Amino acid sequence: MDHQEWEQRKRKLQERAERVLECTRMDTSSEDLHRDNHNLRVHQIELEIQNEELRATQLQLEKERARYAHLYHFSPLGFVVLDKAGIIVEANQRFCTMLDSLQSKIIHQPLMRFIHPDDQDVFLGRYSTFFKSPSEKKIEFRLVSTAGGAIFVRLSGCIQPSSIVQRSGQDNSTTLLLVALDDITSQKQAEEALLSAHKLTRSTIDALSATICVLDETGTILAVNKSWCDFNAANGKEQAVWEGVNYLKVCDGSTGEDSDYGKRFAAGIRSVMCCEAEYHELEYPCLLDDGYHWFVGRITPLEGECDKAQRKVVISHEDITVRKKSEALLHDFNRKLQERIDAEMLRIERLQREKDIQQMALIQQNKMAELGGMIGAITHQWKQPLNSINLLNECLRDAFEHGEIDQAVMNEHIAEVQHLVTFMANTIDDFRDFYLPSKETSRFAVKPVIESVARLLKGQLMKCHIDLTIDGDDALHTSGHSSEFKQVMLNILNNAKDALLEKKPDEKTIKVQVFAEADTIVVTILDNGGGIPEQFLDDAIFEPFFSTKGENGTGIGLSLGKVIVEKNMGGSLTVANRDGGAEFTITLPMI
To answer: Which of 43, 404, 480, 524 has the most crowded Cβ, counting Cβ within 10 A?
Structure first.
């Protein structure tokens, strides 16, 4: 009941009440009239209460109607009422939105008008059957909006009494169909993308050279790639359909001399299926029509199956015959290369031994080159003690002739002679040690070795009026061939002596310092002989056969000295000009 009908009913009720009241006034007494008036008043109040309740009910009904109308029009589904001919009798707002059109332009139009031309035959072919029995039936097609865009919909429906959607002029006996249209465009796009991805995956797998199959939890083949089929067909195992074959049984039933590989591979499949292993790989030989080939079989769980107790797996087999042959060739090459390396190392060791022998010979040769000067120095050093011994003998004879010899005189004579002989013997020992070839490395004190070289040169230096001083710590030890180190010091001191004789300064000095610095021993040899020309201060001064003395030098001493210090003793030998002379610095490891 709408508001207008309610007002009409109210007016009729008032008119009736007035007529009754008019009749009552004429036929009744005042007492009756008062009673009737009271009853009417009560009745009026009751009517007013009923009226208010009816108004409240009407408002509630209007709200519910508006709510359900909103749900109907703005539902995610498009609702359409069709007659038997497929004419749209009613449509909600959602359907109008799908078509991007107004409701007034949709009502009384055939649904066919809004269906994509390619799908119209499908719809016509199924609509009559669908209309008679729509239960559990669905039709999928495309709708075309007024803007030209197409959307996929899924249509489902049910028979609806026409009285529910009756419009003016319609027959109540007409059977109508209420249909719901679900927009499945996103679903269709997802399906299309999934299908495209499946095709891409399939094409990719088929393009692989490895043979691939997928097994279910029982070991039955679910899918294989093209290489699988081609390989088996090429080797006499052509089969129309591989899907459904139990691959585990095939492996378990392997026969022949390589059957153990098949059983081991089956065990690997089961270990991955049962989650005992995440991966299994096996290299195995296989006899084909063209001979033995090597393959590697790999087993991995199918993606998404990792959390299951029993899972599907992917099997791949790859021919690695070329790799195996390459590995064999590489192994043979490495063996031959190692043999060549061993032979070359033996040759290098032999050459090194020969080089060491040559170096020792060169050192000895350098010593021999100094032999003449050394003999001259020893001769000079022996002249004085020999003269002293001769003079002592003359004195002893005179004392004997004059009867002046007693035990005290004899003891004094013998002591002086022994002192002179000891000096001469020490000189010979130093000379012998210097020219004795080196054999084994040993620990030695640096300063005493330098002092032994100085004793050999003492006579020459005194003759040339050269003052040699040696200062430092006697307890600093290093390791090496002491005779070789003596050779280095002799060469440097001789070079300093030659430079002083050439430059002739007023005071000729050579200062040797021996001191510790961190974990090393430093030896500096400084003269005041004018220094070395600047152009020779780089490594040229240590090059073999390079000499600043012209024809008077061999050019061997300093080059040998650098080899001995740096290679044989693990130290360094450098030179620089300082304080009007050359300063050689030797750094040795301290032990």
So the answer is: 480
Q: Which of 142-156, 216-230, 335-349, 419-433 has the lowest mean pLDDT?
A: 419-433
Backbone φ and ψ of 302, nearest 5°? -65, 140
For tokens 């360094």, what's the residue?
Answer: 572
Is the domain of 65 the same as that of 167?
Answer: no
Which of 136-140, 147-151, 373-377, 541-545 is predicted with the least confidence, judged by mean pLDDT? 373-377
Contact yes or no for 482/490 (Cβ under 8 A): no
Q: How long, in residues, is the chain?
A: 591
The verdict on residue 360 lying in a domain is no
Checking if the pLDDT of 171 tops 60, the result is no
445 plus 579 within the same structural domain: yes
- Is 558 a domain residue? yes
Could you please report the per-residue DSSP string of 318-379? EE-HHHHHHHHHHHHHHHHHHHHHHHHHHHHHHHHHHHHHHHHHHHHHHHHHTHHHHHHHHH
Ranges of beta strands (E only) in 115-217 are 139-144, 150-161, 175-183, 211-215
Q: What are phi and psi of 356, to 5 degrees?
A: -65, -40
Cβ–Cβ contacts within 10 Å for residue 264, how many?
Answer: 15
**Is 353 within a domain?**
no
Instruction: State which of 319, 335, 356 marks the end of a domain.
Output: 319
- Quick one: which H or E segment has residue 252? helix 247-252
Res. 17: pLDDT tops 80: no
The domain spanning residue 313 has which CATH number? 3.30.450.20
Count CA atoms within 13 Å of residue 456 on its CB side: 27
Within-domain flag for 42: yes
Provide the token pair at 256: 């022949």
The order of strands in the sheet holding 175-183 is 88-91, 78-82, 175-183, 150-161, 139-144
What single-letter DSSP state applies at residue 228? H
Residue 186: the pLDDT is: 92
- How is residue 190 written in tokens? 């997802």
pLDDT tens digits, one per residue of 90-148: 999 999 999 999 989 999 999 999 999 999 999 999 998 899 888 888 999 999 988 88
Instruction: Give kind and range of the element (H or E) at residue 80.
Output: strand 78-82
Number of domains in the chain: 4
| Parallel/antiparallel/unpaired status of strands 477-480 and 466-472 | unpaired
Say which DSSP state 361 is in: H
Q: Do residues 106 and 250 share a domain? A: no
| Strand, helix or coil for residue 288 | strand
- Of 304, 319, 334, the residue that ends a domain is 319
The domain that holds 574 is classified in CATH as 3.30.565.10
* pTM for the predicted model, two decimal places: 0.43
- Residues 401-440 pLDDT 10s: 777 778 877 887 787 777 667 766 766 666 666 555 555 6
Angstrom distance (rounded) from CA 399 to CA 458: 34
Kindly tell me if the per-residue pLDDT of 84 is higher than 80. Answer: yes
* SS3 of residue 556 by DSSP: coil
Pair type for strands 466-472 and 508-517: parallel
Residue indicated by tokens 């020893």: 378
Domain membership of residue 308 as a residue range: 224-319
Residue 370 pLDDT:
58
Strand order from edge to edge, sheet including 211-215: 221-224, 211-215, 313-319, 291-301, 280-288
